[in-house]
Write the structure tokens for this entry.
Amino acid sequence: MTSRLSVALATCNAWPDLDEDGPVLRQALADEGVTTTILAWDDPGADWSTFDLVLLRTTWDWWDRHEEFLAWTRRVPRLANTAEVVAWNTDKSYLREFERAGVPVVPTTWLVPGDTLSDPGGTFVVKPSVSAGARDTAAYVGGDPAAGAHVDRLLAAGRTVMVQPYLDQVDTLGETAVLVFDGKVSHAAVKSAVLTPGAGTPALGSWQVAPREASAQEVSFALRVVEGRDLLYARVDLLPTADGPVLIELEVTEPSLFLQHSPASAARLARAVRARAQRPSARRPSVRRRSAP
């Protein structure tokens, strides 16, 4: 008889019950014969080697403990997505790789400690390259001295800073989030604008989300972004423009997956999780029992 698969859902102490995706995902996994356990990633008593797969979910304190978090991911035997992917994805410098590959991205000026902000004029966004959920991110109108102070504060802390134009389409069209599970597009959603010039850093999760039907062009774009990457799950955040989609971010660490906005999406993800947990390289090593003498 085949043993029941066991998957750990990694979170943090501030999110002990996961986010709104949690209940629907756990039910879908149960329907697939998968037992789930919620554990904080830094739980000292957790034995991650006992699970067929460890699925990153609401580990939403890593940005204050980045190196510690990355060290933990390297110790987890069967992590999805992998430690290598997480290390790459938790620093938005990966956008340079996409730009070099010809993928349209939001134009970005990169600043490192020792640099100073040259006011770009217009309306622009300042954010650190290591962050999530718009943390330490704000929009400014050219000439606002608060922008320079923001940049200086981040650089003084040894952080890389991104300066990007504020694209007005986000106010009228919103960001399209295309969800891809195991290389196949599952569903899409639209996220409202979260930044207001001069209003400072927004609260985590202050945006609104609604279902959206991704266009054929957006689906093709999302698949291009994830092509060649062995990802269990991905959220491709893009902005529709007159010239086609522009990549904002590729979220493959711990993104909200907006499962409640597409009725069949949790089942699709659960099937992908089960398949990944059943991979020979992802299964727990079998225990050989000695024969009785």
Q: What stands out?
A: Residues 109-165 form one domain. The chain has three domains: 5-90+277-282, 109-165, 168-260.
